[in-house]
Design a protein that fits this description.
The structure holds three protein chains of three kinds.
Chain A lengths: L8 E4 L2 H5 L2 H13 L4 E2 L9 H5 L5 H17 L4 E4 L2 H16 L1 H13 L18 E3 H7 L1 H6 L10 E3 L3 H4 L15 H8 L21 H4 L1 H17 L4 E4 L2 H18 L6 E4 H8 L4 H5 L9 H6 L2 E2 L4 E2 L10
Helix pairs in contact in A: 2-14, 4-5, 4-6, 5-6, 7-10, 12-13
Chain B lengths: L12 H7 L17 H4 L2 H5 L4 H9 L19 H5 L6 H15 L3 H4 L3 H10 L9 H8 L1 H16 L9 H13 L2 H10 L2
Helix pairs in contact in B: 4-6, 8-11, 8-12, 9-10
Chain C lengths: L15 E6 L11 H7 L4 E5 L5 H14 L3 E6 L2 H11 L8 E5 L1 H5 L5 H19 L8 E3 L4 E5 L3 H12 L3 E5 L14 E4 L4 E4 H14 L3 E4 L2 E9 L2 E8 L14 H5 L3 E3 L8 E3 L1 E2 L11 E2 L9 H5 L12 E7 L1 E4 L3 E3 L16 E3 H8 L20 E8 L16 H15 L4 E6 L8 H10 L3 E4 L4 E5 L2 E8 L4 E7 L1 E6 L1 E3 L1 H10 L26 E3 L9 H21 L1 E3 L4 E3 L9 H5 L5 E4 L2 E4 L9 H5 L5 E3 L4 H12 L9 E5 L1 H12 L8 E5 L8 H9 L4 E6 L9 H14 L7 E5 L5 H19 L2
Parallel strand pairs in C: 1-2, 1-3, 3-4, 6-7, 6-18, 7-10, 18-29, 20-27, 21-22, 21-27, 22-23, 35-36, 35-37, 37-38
Antiparallel strand pairs in C: 5-30, 8-9, 11-12, 12-17, 13-14, 15-16, 19-28, 24-25, 25-26, 31-34, 32-33
Helix pairs in contact in C: 1-5, 5-17, 6-7, 6-14, 11-12, 18-21
The chains are: A alpha/beta, B mainly alpha, C alpha/beta.
Chain lengths: 327, 195, 777
Amino acid sequence: MKFIPDKDILLFKSCLVNVEYPGVESSTSYIFDRIDVEYYVDERQSCCTGLGHYYDLFDQISTTALAARNFHLAAETGHKNIAVMCATCYAILKKSAKILNQNEEARNKVNQILDDSNLEKREYTLDDMDPTLNIFHVAEIFYNKRDEISSLVKVDLSSLRVATHHACHYCKVHYNDTIEGVRDPNLIDKLAEAVGVETIGWYDHKTVTCGAGFRQRFTNKEASLAVTAEKLQALKDNKVDLLLHMCPNCQMQFDRYQPYIEEKLDTEFNIFHLNISQFIALALGADPYKILGIQTHTVPIEPLLKRLNYSLETNEKIDVEAKKSPN
Amino acid sequence: MKTIKLKKESVQLVKEVLKDIKASPDLGIYKCVQCGMCTSVCPGAKETDYDPRDMIRRVLEDDETVVDDDNIWNCFSCYTCNSVCPCGNNASEINQILRQMSIDKGEGMKKIVSFAAYGDSFMELGVGSIPSNFFDVMVKDIGPGYMDLKINIEDIRTDLGLGSYILPEKAIDEVESILDNSGFKDRLEKIKRCK
Amino acid sequence: MNPDSSKDISNKDLKIGVFLCRCGGNISDTVDMEKLRSSVDAEVVEEFENLCSINGRKIIRDSIIQKNLDRVVVAACSPITHEKTFQKYINPLNPYLLEMANLREQCSWVNPDVETATEKAISLVNASIEKVKYAQPLDPILRKTTKSAAVIGGGISGISASLSLARQGIKTCLIEEQPTIGGAMVKVGKLFSPEKLAEECAMCLLNPLVNEAVEHKNIKIMTNTTLKAAERRSGNFHLLIESKPRKVIEEKCISCGKCAEVCPVEVKDSWNEDMTFRKAIYKPFAQAVPDVYTIDLENCKNCGKCQEVCRMNAIDLDMEGEVIPMTVGSVVIATGHKTFDMDKRPEYSYGRHDDIVTQMELARIMGVNGPTKGKLLKPSNNKIPERVVMVQCVGSRDEKPGGRKYCSKVCCMVAIKHANVIKQHYPDTDVIICYTDMRTPGMYEKYFKYAQSNGVRLIRGRPGEVAEKDGIFTVRLEDTLSKEPLEIEADLVVLSTAMEPSDGTINVSGLLDVGLTEELFVKEKHSKIKPVATEVDGVYVCGTAQGPKDITDSIVQANAAAAKISELINGGVELEPFVASIDQSKCTLCKKCIDICKYKAAYIQDGILTVDPISCTGCGACIWECENNAIEIMGQTDEQIIATIDGMLKDKKPDEKRIIAFLDSVGYVSADNIGINKITVPSSVRIIKIPSMNRIMPKHILHAFKMGADGIIMGEYPYNPMYSHTKEKIAGLKGELVKNNINPDRLAFYKVYIPYFRGLANKFKEFDGEIKCLDTP
């Protein structure tokens, strides 16, 4: 398996984490701080262009030029290992690094753009960024330190019936770099296992997209939500309480639109949605509001916490000993 | 009746596709055996008339009308086709190339003009966001809580110990300058004129 | 290697006879024979119209006897045409004391100009004279191998090979890892005949062969054994065979089965593809050979219950394994295949549901000696399926990680066979085969048509997934002919899984030093003309160890492998003696030569570095590695190469250009073809035949330039096992030139192929032009 670093990491900001689920970032930091990962957040880092790229609004050269700038920022501060919280950042950055390394014409063009922008210092040199060995999803960083995570678990979440949704742009774009399975992805299942939760593993539609489909959510809403609904139904058939995510766009599709789909189909799914970072942070005892940021969720997380005998008023978890009889 | 003529004058679509900057060096389009595995796992094929296998066939058969086919806009970019294609082809990537060809021709611009606001916000803040024109319908679909979130996001971020997500001015200038020199600014203006 | 009678005579004193052939004008019309004769410095110079005729033989022989000649040069046609003839003509001299100058194909036919042709002829004859001075009397190498063989793997391939060998009088040891022989064929139940459009019982076909193998005096069957180590010693193999303790004394066991009745341990039965259970003491199936019980060491709890009931006292729980040494002349790898690991394609839900099975599992279900006694019943509920959907190419023709790029070759036929059997016995059961291409070549097409007429349905599309809900499976695919995504409901799904090399194939090949393909099947020496030979002489391969194939092809290969071994044993091999020779006083046993040799010709025996002349091609790659100059190639010694170069460059005029072309045997034939087709070649080109580019070292190149060569071109056939280092070698040689202030552009390399002689001729012209340019101020 590829080498996964635990230092010199640029924690790459994501546009959707920023404004939809900022708790993913605070949860990630919370975990990183506890498992001794050395990382840095750079306020100058621009967005990867992901949404715009897959809206087909951005052209590949512009996306690649911005990636080259971000790669340079990473190297400049000595944090050349990039860890992303969003699967689309993951795919976009890897694709850009591959183009910069493999396509000389494109590389020269990007460097010309940087020169023209008086950013000669940010020029890209061949192999500055290794798409396989320098670009990671934070879930991979966690995976590498899952034993340490296990040793820090404070909250027993094992009573939950948990399934996972592995982001397409993590698993299926650069599949040679994917760890713990492409066709039956298990990366976040393993992370759940690390905090003491046995997931349901495989289910029908496990590898199917969330349905967002970038433009599809807006221009083809019915098709988009039909895909989401089918997956939700499969999860319901499996009596799942909680779906774990690793991409804010997937999380949006499920969390924001689940009530809407329930209303349209006149059904109830009753499935909670958490990002893997939020889930691990929860297991490690993080505060649901101050760290997990559950206040930005559309499907309220409070009932889930209640089931876990979490005392929300005091923000104190009931320790494992005290909650022998659930509900 | 279709005839495969001895002399072919027009440019070959597949060669154009393979020349595109997005095309991976190991893109296996020529190896396609039309097995349909891509279509069998495609959410777009399930919900719409999009058929990635047929799209590949049309590219290989030099059917340039595929570029103008509305169905290419039904791909979810989920890359599931890519992850299973036994021939090493990547229908998703080829779809994106065809869409760019359509945009370059002008027709495709109509398809993406509604997303132009993303470009504006990117140029302004250095960060992308869901285009503002979709905001109303999202609030309607998701509920008023979504509006509250948008209003309170800075406070929530502060509560979570996170700083501002908007880039410092100097960084925004760098981003804007890059997007100006990359031609994105012009491209965006052109797209917006499509309205 | 041979006693050297002539070493005490100095080269200068050697009496050399040169015989010039006019070749009925083919040579003499272009070469000025008079001038050639007068330019040659030798004891005897004779000229004749047709040297290859019987009269020519007399002239040569008389001169040798009368003038007491020590060496002979024949300047005539290409050695490819007549070297063997002239080697006989110089009797009583040793045949290797002859050199030929190629005045026809490489001189008169490619140089129409008399003056330059004559110049070239002189240098070619001079080169041969210089070289022959260093010729040593050698003997062709004769090798016979021991009249015995080991066949590794007791499936249909191994059994067939053993029988063929045994029938030819060759003592054969059949080594099988499992407690019984029979391999995959005993499990498949039915075989089909494309001719008769009928299915036959596999066991009934196999049993007579197994019985003959058991009875045959020349076959020793060793079950429960594996190859542990192998060493190769000039044609023979020393093997170490490890046998697992059966814990049942074969001679005593009467196979009554009482032991299994009392055994408390239940284990999944691999004979039925894990669909049923057996005991820890077991006999794989009723007709198993040898007909004895075996204790499964992994699962036996040593409770001793079996011992209590065995009336024959056949059970010995203290029995230990043993390691048996043996020496055989040849080895056959018949280690077979295994089936694709379905964990790599989880989307088909195999392992999650009992009614998603592989074709082999379906074969067991439909086998009369299988879990349902031949009835087609679903494993989950013992009901007859309403619809069977077969998914083709599972793991085959798949470039994705974990997949197999090749077509597994038999799956289309296996699916059709099972579909036909189902349709015959269960006409109400719907059978659909989802395929990408139906591959039923030759007569199999008739059986395919038969399936269609039986009502087997075919849908063209490769399924992306198989899902389950409430006991019903959904096979998702696109019907690519009607262009629509399709979901097929089924209650039995059968996966046609890829054939993969077995672990045994990989292990045994490693022990025998045999090369593997990219896909880890055993690599044949040549896929067209040496289909059962491996890279190691004396080791042959047959059956699915070599690649996916059906029973017919496996048997054909098994018989071919046996025939090849028989050739080796009965005919022996006569080899040219141009192989590596080791100066033991200089060899330090550093083993670098062993590491570099892809032919695996070098090995250490009793503390001495030994070269197996059967394997050695004399390529010379080992010489580069040897820091102690302990290796020489017979017939291509440094002295001989240097002398040839000197001869080629002798009497070069100041304004003349000479290019030395070192060509391997393929390149040399290609150059002859240039002559046969009368294509003009620059007069500067002088061809020297070498065994391989590996033989030419910096010192040879530098010597040639020192002696006046203007350019050197090297030609090598790229598909030889030692080719991989060629690029680095050329770069290294060029580097040497730079160090010696010689323009590296004076050294060129060209890939040669026999039919592409025009390319070689063009390369000569091009290079000649480049050399002229370099020297134009």
